[in-house]
Specification:
Helices cover 28% and strands 30% of the residues. It is of the alpha+beta class. It has a single domain, classed as outer membrane lipoprotein receptor (LolB), chain A. It has an eleven-stranded antiparallel beta sheet with strand order 6-5-4-3-2-1-11-10-9-8-7.
């Protein structure tokens, strides 16, 4: 793990599908009227239409309120976090391995700023001049250049609905269908998304998914199955959602406990 740039690129790659498809965001609460409105919308039961596809799309409404916790698992890397769109706040915690190197990273987006805490092992930490357990404030211009801000990486994309090609019931509160990832990724600023779509080729237009709903008919789990292509391996990505309307809004670390990141971290 060479730098913050490498770390952000890796995390972006892990969360690309979630960001583009159902775990990434605009911060638009759909006219819910601020924090209280977002909490009420997210927590409210969803009325389920009779048509299977419409019923599945309706279950997405609570996510659009932008107040929930989530977890993403793909290729052995686990990412968990909280999204709170009314104040454009979000947090992520990532644990995994890249090129044989274990890492742990935490990120907070709050008050229009980005903070990161990383542990890349003794060698990686020394190279970047960081201390494990210490928060660092990322230069705002750099965060934007790396597409690592709330707007780029938080959940809920407006084109999610048009990305669902088919959806049918698969038992009680469960669905399966196909998803057009190329449509989901349209307009997404994350360069990792464009690369993935290109590598998937025609397969991007028909990604199989399964979904589960909670007792209030809100999405609780989305699983995408990627078949092997000429340029991409076969893998499964699972995203879980919980704490609708109740997840604690992330807050920025105290200024005195979050020094500015050193130049080495951006190399």
């Amino acid at each position: 793990m060479k730098s913050l740039r490498t770390t952000f690129a890796m995390i972006s790659a892990v969360t690309v599908l979630g960001v583009a498809a159902g775990c990434g965001g605009t911060g638009d609460t759909g006219g819910s009227g601020g924090p209280a409105g977002a909490e009420a919308t997210a927590a409210a039961p969803v009325t389920t239409p009779a048509d299977p596809k419409e019923a599945f799309l309706a279950s997405y409404k609570a996510l659009e309120a932008g107040h929930y916790a989530y977890s993403v698992n793909v290729s052995g890397t686990e990412s968990t976090g909280i999204v709170y769109a009314p104040t454009k706040s979000a947090s992520t915690h990532n644990v995994g391995e890249v090129d044989g190197n274990a890492f742990t990273t935490d990120t907070i987006f709050a008050d229009g700023k980005t903070f990161v805490r990383m542990d890349l092992g003794s060698e990686g930490n020394e190279r970047l001049g960081i201390k494990a357990g210490t928060w660092y404030e990322v230069d705002t211009a750099v965060a934007k250049k790396l597409d690592y801000t709330f707007e780029e990486l938080s959940p809920v994309q407006p084109n999610f609905h048009s990305s669902v090609v088919t959806a049918e019931r698969d038992g009680d509160k469960a669905f399966r269908g196909t998803f057009d990832f190329s449509v989901a990724a349209e307009g997404n600023p994350n360069p990792q998304t464009e690369t993935l779509v290109q590598n998937l080729g025609d397969a991007a237009k028909s990604i199989a998914f399964t979904a589960k709903l909670d007792d209030r008919n809100r999405i609780s789990e989305l699983v995408w199955t990627f078949e092997k292509t000429e340029k991409t391996p076969a893998y499964v990505q699972k995203i879980s959602f919980s704490e609708y309307g109740t997840a604690n809004a992330p807050s920025a670390p105290a200024a005195e406990k979050a020094p500015a990141a050193l130049n080495e971290i951006y190399a």
